[in-house]
Design a protein that fits this description.
With about 120 residues, this protein is mostly helical. The protein is built from six helices and two strands, in the order αββααααα. A two-stranded antiparallel sheet has the order 1-2.
């Protein structure tokens, strides 16, 4: 049986950083406030982070958002169920009260997608 390669302690954190970057990035050559998204890329990074730690709440949120945006609603709902197993009672408003997102459009997109996937408002 092949053993998994050990990962550096910050590997999951770095994967999540890349996930967040892929989720909403400024589109080159556009005016301020115009954004482009690479949801497939974000989902790949989130899945890599989750392969290292299935209970990584940040990656579960990012995966749910990406899956909603990609039309993978069943998978997104499962991510939110997994997230609620880790953080019972979590709500969209509670998440944003705890972790403010500095880019308003990104915050709105996250909130809408998380609610669509079943996270209570």
């Amino acid at each position: 049986m092949k053993r998994p390669k050990p990962q550096p302690p910050l590997a999951a954190y770095l994967d999540e950083s890349f996930t967040m970057t892929c989720t909403v990035v400024a589109a080159p050559g556009t005016k301020a406030g115009a954004y482009s998204a690479d949801y497939a890329g974000a989902l790949r990074w989130a899945e890599q982070a989750l392969a290292l730690n299935r209970r990584f709440a940040v990656a579960l949120r990012a995966a749910a958002v990406a899956q909603v945006r990609l039309g993978q609603m069943d998978r997104a709902r499962q991510m939110v169920r997994d997230l609620l197993d880790i953080e019972p009672g979590l709500t969209v408003s509670g998440f944003f009260a705890r972790i403010p997102v500095p880019v308003e459009r990104m915050a709105e997109m996250y909130a809408d997608a998380l609610q669509a996937a079943g996270l209570p408002a």
